[in-house]
Design a protein that fits this description.
about 20% strand, Alpha-Beta Plaits, two-stranded antiparallel sheet
């Protein structure tokens, strides 16, 4: 028991006089790991059309059941995506999301991706319900 106590005190003493590594968060940012999955984004094609074709595979693949997709048919007058359908409503409940990335893996057209935006804190519960307007990448 005494040896374990001395060993623990040795580890404490070793780090007692070293300089701590602290980042001043808003000004300094740590580089995220390569395989980190953060905030969801719905992507667009180069011509401005939405990539999401409303197939609901992301909804089926989600283990937390936090994604809801409502599909609607495209028309020639109002074309939203290149396929025959598009996601009329796309919603993610970020409180339930476990950031597993299975929605990204299941998407056949690479419409949903998880990017390096990790600032998700808020005070209101309703603000964690990300709708299509908030998820969709802005048009170029």
């Amino acid at each position: 028991m005494l040896t374990e106590l001395l060993q623990a005190l040795g580890i404490t003493g070793k780090y007692l006089f070293t300089r701590s590594v602290t980042l001043r968060y808003p000004e300094e940012r740590r580089e995220p790991y390569l395989r980190t999955r953060w905030r969801h984004k719905l992507m667009r094609h180069e011509n401005g059309l939405e990539r999401c074709i409303g197939c609901s595979l992301c909804e089926a693949a989600c283990p937390a059941r936090c994604i809801r997709v409502v599909a609607e048919e495209n028309t020639e007058e109002a074309r939203v995506s290149p396929g025959e359908r598009y996601a009329k409503e796309y919603e993610i409940n970020m409180i339930r999301c476990i950031f597993c990335g299975l929605c990204q893996e299941a998407c056949p057209v690479e419409a949903i991706v998880l990017r390096e935006d990790f600032e998700l804190a808020d005070y209101e519960r309703d603000s964690f319900r990300f709708t299509k307007d908030r998820l969709l990448e802005p048009q170029k």
